[in-house]
């Protein structure tokens, strides 16, 4: 049995990384493209303002109050803007004509405000090249310095913030996934070891019982021969257990077999040993005896044994019953296993097939999980809980594809 995800798990992780990277890059591209368009729009607004100033200059109103134009043309803009006169060294000698959306303390003196504005001009000049206002003769009248609006600044950093949150989420998800995976693997390893011990427990207990009976009946040759046959059955079972575990994880060979006969053989084995297990349970089988399906005998026997053991653990009545029913319906073989045990709660019916899940104190939580894998993965069939009533009993159902009848 493979205990790690292998190439499939790595492919899933790689696919998730690629998808995450694609989403992150797509978000980054889209956001930066949107930022660029918004910046261009704001630049166009500044250019409109500059054109208005140039128009004023061309109508010989150079000395007009530019504050009126400033307030009425772009009075609703939300990005920082500073208008200066014609200077080459703005930061040291420039005269500021007007400004908008510049944060400052109204209580500052004019000299300190001028220093702050000059520093802001120098800062804005690093963000965008100033828009130059020229007279009709080509003389530079003023320069307009502008920066990015608050929404552009937020949009610029938004994708990086989103990527950061995504990375944190992925780290948490990956850590949780790894923890759950490791926990599940530990449960499977523990379950497998307990399942091995449980599989070996029945024949070993029987062998110990037969050994005691041999000591008590060594002079009775007929009895000794019967006991010898039972010991042989238990040794055969130990051999089968070895084969079962060797087949898990590899593709088993399927041959045409009669499921009724296999079920009957398993029932006979358990029926002779139930007294030693302290159980008074009647196990029976009825239905179609001739129809064959493609099976692996060792693994299919394992499924039937697990279902019987599960039923035995569920039965708390003094008179227990476990009934198998084999039916040939169209091209399917349907096998129902009904017990009169304590039943399964409706919301737990899917959990019972999960590795490590068990409601029993001594449960190993692997028998039904292995049974599901054997039926569905190796035999292309189905196994599920058909019905279950609390304190009344449970019916499991197995559906297999029937093989062509051999004449």
Summarize the structure in words.
The protein is α+β, with helices and mostly antiparallel strands. It has 2 domains: 6-148; 205-401, Heat Shock Protein 90, CATH 3.30.565. Helix content is 56%, strand content 17%. It has 9 helices and 11 strands. A 5-stranded mixed beta sheet has the order 6-8-9-11-10. The chain has a 4-stranded antiparallel beta sheet with strand order 2-1-4-3. A hairpin with a 5-residue loop joins strand 3 (131-134) and strand 4 (140-146).
Write the layout of secondary structure elements.
Elements: H1 6-58, H2 66-73, E1 81-85, H3 90-93, E2 96-100, H4 110-127, E3 131-134, E4 140-146, H5 150-216, H6 221-247, E5 255-257, H7 259-277, E6 281-287, E7 293-295, H8 297-314, E8 320-329, E9 332-339, H9 367-378, E10 382-389, E11 393-401
Parallel strand pairs: 6-8
Antiparallel strand pairs: 1-2, 1-4, 3-4, 5-7, 8-9, 9-11, 10-11
Helix pairs in contact: 1-2, 1-5, 5-6, 7-8, 8-9
List keywords for this structure.
four-stranded antiparallel sheet, 11 strands, five-stranded mixed sheet, 407 residues, Heat Shock Protein 90, disordered N terminus, single chain, alpha+beta
What is the CATH architecture descriptor of the largest domain?
A: 2-Layer Sandwich
The overall pLDDT, averaged over residues, is 76
Low-confidence stretches: 1-5, 89-93
Q: Percent of residues in helical segments?
A: 55-70%
- The count of β-strands is 11
Spatial order of strands in the largest sheet: 6-8-9-11-10
* Number of structural units classed as domains: 2
CATH superfamily of the largest domain: Histidine kinase-like ATPase, C-terminal domain
**Main β-sheet description:** 5 strands, mixed
């Amino acid at each position: 049995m493979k205990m790690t995800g292998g190439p499939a798990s790595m492919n899933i992780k790689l696919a998730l990384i690629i998808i995450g990277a694609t989403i992150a890059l797509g978000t980054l591209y889209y956001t930066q493209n949107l930022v660029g368009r918004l910046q261009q729009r704001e630049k166009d607004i500044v250019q409109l303002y500059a054109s208005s100033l140039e128009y004023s200059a061309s109508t010989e109103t150079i000395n007009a109050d530019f504050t009126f134009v400033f307030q009425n043309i772009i009075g609703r803009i939300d990005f920082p803007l500073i208008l200066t006169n014609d200077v080459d060294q703005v930061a040291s000698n420039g005269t500021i004509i007007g400004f908008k959306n510049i944060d400052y303390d109204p209580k500052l003196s004019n000299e300190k405000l001028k220093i702050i504005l000059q520093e802001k001009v120098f800062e804005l000049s690093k963000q965008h090249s100033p828009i130059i206002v020229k007279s009709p003769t080509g003389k530079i009248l003023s320069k307009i310095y502008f920066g990015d609006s608050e929404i552009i600044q937020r949009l610029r950093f938004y994708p990086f913030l989103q990527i950061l949150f995504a990375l944190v989420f992925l780290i948490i998800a990956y850590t949780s996934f790894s923890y759950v995976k490791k926990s599940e693997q530990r449960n499977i390893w523990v379950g497998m070891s307990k399942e091995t011990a449980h599989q070996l427990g029945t024949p070993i207990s029987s062998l110990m019982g037969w050994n005691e009976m041999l000591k008590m009946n060594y002079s009775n040759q007929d009895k000794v021969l019967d006991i010898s046959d039972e010991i042989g059955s238990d040794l055969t079972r130990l051999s089968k257990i070895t084969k079962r575990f060797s087949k898990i994880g590899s593709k088993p060979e399927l041959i045409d077999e009669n499921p009724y006969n296999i079920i009957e053989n398993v029932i006979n084995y358990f029926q002779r040993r139930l007294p030693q297990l302290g159980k008074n349970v009647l196990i029976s089988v009825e239905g179609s005896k001739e129809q064959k399906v493609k099976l692996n005998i060792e693994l299919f026997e394992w499924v039937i044994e697990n279902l019987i053991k599960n039923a035995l653990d569920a039965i708390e009545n003094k008179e227990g019953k476990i009934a198998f029913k084999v039916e040939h319906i169209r091209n399917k073989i349907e096998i129902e296993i009904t017990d009169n045990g304590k039943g399964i709660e409706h919301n737990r019916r899917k959990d019972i097939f999960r590795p490590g899940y068990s409601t029993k104190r001594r449960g190993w939580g692997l028998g039904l999980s292995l049974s599901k894998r054997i039926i569905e993965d190796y035999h292309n069939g189905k196994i599920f809980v058909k019905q279950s009533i609390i304190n009344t009993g449970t019916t499991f159902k197995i559906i297999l594809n029937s093989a062509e009848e051999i004449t």
